[in-house]
Description:
The protein contains 3 helices and 12 strands, in the order ββααβββββββαβββ. The chain is α+β, with helices and mostly antiparallel strands.
Amino acid sequence: MATETYELAIEGTVVASYRQTLLHFTGVGVASVDTVAAGESLIAGFIANCEVSFLLTLPQAYSINAYRARRATPKPSFVSHQEFGVGVKQGTRGSDAVGQQTCPSIFLVPTMGTKSGGRIFWPSIPAGDVQQSSYVAAWQTAVNTALTAMTTGFTNAGITWTLAIFSRKLLTASTVAGHNFSPLIGFQAKRRSPIGAVA
């Protein structure tokens, strides 16, 4: 059994606007030759342990359409996926989003000795949770809860998954020591791929 890094893409929509949230997880106990089982374990584990707290940070205007998981390195890897009907998995905090192109950014703080941190582009934020260009404390608390569930780790099918910071340049994963909320709330250009695009 090995320790490997997998990428989890959460694909969704805010009304009709496509959103993709990329997360990386380190899996302990992965069978290197079976990327199908590892990807399915990550998706099932995330749904069972993190999905509810993730949706508690998002407005009803947001809906998860699919999960896709694959090994980040080494490649190649099979892409495991699970898809859902429109509106089956909606956000549960508030109703409307601030704006279809408004996406908060959360910086992942690495442990000492790591060259760079990570970033999560949160897919949306409820309209009432931004006041005078600042995040309200209740929304930050909800995000903290979701990230705690991811960084604490969860086990599914014998594999323990923990949120990680993945460097595409160095092809290495590092532990998340904490996180900060970016003061900038703006357009999420990196995640506006059309539905059906291959990441």
